[in-house]
Structure formats: C-alpha cells, structure tokens
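ok, trying the design again with the full structure, not the truncated one.
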C-alpha cells in the first residue's frame, strides 16, 4: 500500500497587491477529487498542514461564484464532510519525514501562495523527497508550494524541471487578476522552472520524472491518477 502525504494550506486569508485582505483557503475539488482517487486505489493518505492547523475550504470553491455548479458543490461538500475528522486533526509539517511516504501531494486554491510557498518545513520535505526520487505532485496554485524548496547550495530545487501550474492567463481570466500578489507561472519561470502550459482551463498534467504537476481544478483527477501510475510503475 502506497503512503501519500497530502499537504494542505492552512491559510484562510491573503494580502493582495493593493494591500487589502482577501479570504481564501483550499479549493474543494482539488482536495476532494484527489483524495477520492488516491484512496479508492488503496493508497493511505495522511494530511499535513503548517503547524497542524485545521485547513479552511475556500467558500468560492463550493459556490457558483467560483464557477462551480451546485451539483458539483454538493458532491465535494459531502466528500469533505466524510473526511472531516482527518481534516480537523492534520499532522504538523514540522513533525513529518519525507522518508515515511512514497509521495507528497499538494492541492491548491490561492491559499498555498500565502503560506506553503515560503514554508521552511515544507521546503525541507520537498527537497528531501526529490533528492531521494520520491514522487512530488502539486496541483493548480498548489504548485506555488514548490517555491519553498531550495538545495543546500541555495539554488531552487526544481530549477530546470518541466512543470505546469495555474497560468497567468487563467489568473487574469478567472482568478485575482492584476490584484494577485504574484503570478505563480511567472514566479516559477523566474526561479528557473520550465513551465509548459496547456490551453486555459484544460485538463493538463505534466510529468518530469518524479515530479507531477496539474494546471487547474479540472486537472485534479488526472493528476492523482498520474501519481498512482507512477507509484505502481
């Protein structure tokens, strides 16, 4: 049985470019669909957050204002209710070891931009996992969490690696637009990653060895399935 550490942001707000505070959290579909695919295949999924704090779901991810149909929102809400006990008592990133897991999986929502992208404990875990060839997967804005990882020499762990993320185009079309604190795609390029983006809102997954990334919520199930295939191989 594969053991997967799902790292979820615990941020419930973020500062925007104009200095205002914006409510945020994890994106329901990305956690629910990913967790469902992984556990249905028999994987053991543990959840961890910074400080072991309970994560907050982004209200927009369960609302038509966030482009989510009511029927889908009901399905995601029901699934999250089913794992509420696990979500309410996550592990602390500071207390977990990469060697105890076969893969690290990071779903998104804007929240990872506010905490995971600069979390030193996560950076340590990601660098250790990548160095040992363990699977590292991230989805949508969750790919911003990769920015936390640096090699011992100070270089970005994932420099030169091919990946995808929530794109600048998608951020402008259906995200925070010009008020975003930074564009995830652009920031990754600045750090030396090779970003391969599919069309806006397409189901796009990019794999570079042990690194698997999905572009947006529409890529949730396919990203989880790619992780399962890699672990099986």
């Amino acid at each position: 049985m594969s053991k997967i550490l799902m790292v979820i942001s615990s941020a419930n707000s973020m500062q925007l470019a104009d200095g205002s505070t914006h409510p945020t959290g994890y994106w329901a579909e990305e956690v629910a669909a990913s967790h469902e695919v992984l556990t249905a295949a028999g994987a053991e999924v543990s959840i961890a957050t910074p400080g072991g704090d309970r994560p907050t779901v982004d209200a927009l991810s369960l609302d038509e204002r966030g482009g989510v149909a009511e029927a889908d929102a009901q399905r995601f809400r029901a699934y999250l209710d089913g794992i509420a006990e696990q979500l309410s008592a996550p592990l602390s990133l500071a207390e977990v070891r990469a060697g105890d897991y076969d893969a690290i999986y990071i779903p998104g929502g804007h929240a990872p931009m506010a905490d995971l992208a600069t979390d030193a404990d996560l950076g340590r875990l990601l660098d250790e996992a990548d160095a040992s060839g363990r699977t590292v997967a991230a989805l949508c804005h969750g790919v911003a969490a990769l920015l936390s990882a640096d090699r011992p020499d100070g270089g970005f762990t994932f420099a030169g690696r091919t990946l995808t993320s929530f794109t600048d185009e998608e951020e402008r079309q259906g995200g925070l637009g010009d008020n975003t604190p930074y564009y995830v795609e652009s920031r990754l390029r600045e750090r030396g990653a090779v970003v391969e983006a599919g069309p806006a809102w397409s189901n796009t997954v990019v794999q570079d060895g042990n690194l698997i990334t999905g572009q947006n919520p529409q890529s949730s199930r396919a990203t989880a399935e790619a992780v399962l295939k890699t672990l099986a191989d």
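Keeping the full-length input from now on. DSSP finds seven helices and eleven strands in the chain.
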